Amino acid sequence: MGLFEGISRFVLISTILTAVGFLVHLISYGAPYWLKSGEFHVGLWKLCIGSQCYNTVSKTFKDLFVAYEGWLAAVQAFETLAFLASLATIAVIGLRFTVMKEQKILQIGIFIFQFASVGLILLGVIIFGAKSPSSSYGYAFVFEIISAIIFLIAGVFSFMDWRGTSVPA
Hints:
Blueprint: H1 9-30, E1 35-37, E2 40-42, E3 46-49, E4 52-55, H2 59-64, H3 69-98, H4 104-131, H5 139-162
Antiparallel strand pairs: 1-2, 2-3, 3-4
Helix pairs in contact: 1-3, 1-5, 3-4, 4-5
């Protein structure tokens, strides 16, 4: 009895895409280069001007950079929820591969978590893009958009598997 016995091609593709999307999202989540302009760069958790960096959840940051306070916290919340949804997706995929292969509810849970990740990532990206003081976006911002696209494609494959349009691998 193999690990992939009875698992469709769509599930395998979706699983690979979910893992890649999670890694891309993880890189973007922690990188301080959502916005870059000369010596200035900012991420979800750190803002740097030259060699001076500030933690975005510290009191010093909130005192110095009042313009960032509300909307940046909203972006942090949405991206954190997206991170948790992607972790939940991986956990449910693990269950599906190991102990609960025949449970239809897991198929539904997988694509719901994948689409939730997409929605939460896009909400954070939209807020950041609309409120940021510059349009010089860094690689982490682009990675975040790429991770949403990857999760969307993975969700479509999971949905197609749930609808029963694939043959076993």
